[in-house]
Specification:
Blueprint: E1 4-7, E2 10-13, E3 18-24, E4 32-38, E5 45-50, E6 57-59, E7 67-72, E8 77-82, E9 91-98, E10 112-113, E11 117-122
Parallel strand pairs: 2-11
Antiparallel strand pairs: 1-3, 3-8, 4-5, 4-9, 5-6, 7-8, 9-10, 9-11
Length: 123
């Protein structure tokens, strides 16, 4: 069993930066980790994913080059560094854990989810 708690969301001006954190309990180092986001009226969107070792990362097209995912297994924490934020990045951001390292862009392949943290980017 894995429990995930996101933090670090808030209000930021367009062009600014935020770093989200996801603290985990359980066998965190055995799981691949991902970030998804959900905006009102839109389907859940893949943001980023990272393998259990941190050696492989993946990004959604809309955030590639602006966001960076990383993990610190000693601290049981995964991070999402968000730079050059745009109003269209406004959403609730969720972290998730997946036991198996495949098809990580698909939300149904994740086993555990956090409660989400709100990110609002003003124009």
């Amino acid at each position: 069993q894995v429990q995930l708690v996101e933090s670090g969301g808030g209000l930021v001006q367009a062009g600014g930066s935020l770093r989200l954190s996801c603290a985990a309990s359980g066998r965190f180092s055995s799981y691949a980790m991902g970030w998804f986001r959900s905006a009102p009226g839109k389907e859940r969107e893949f943001v980023a994913a990272i393998s259990w070792s941190g050696g492989s990362t993946y990004y959604g097209d809309s955030v590639k080059g602006r966001f960076t995912i990383s993990r610190d297994n000693a601290k049981n924490t995964v991070y999402l560094q968000m730079n050059s934020l745009k109003p269209e990045d406004t959403a609730v951001y969720y972290c998730a854990a997946a036991l198996y390292f495949h098809y990580l862009r698909i939300s149904a392949n994740y086993d555990y989810w956090g409660q989400g943290t709100q990110v609002t980017v003003s124009s």
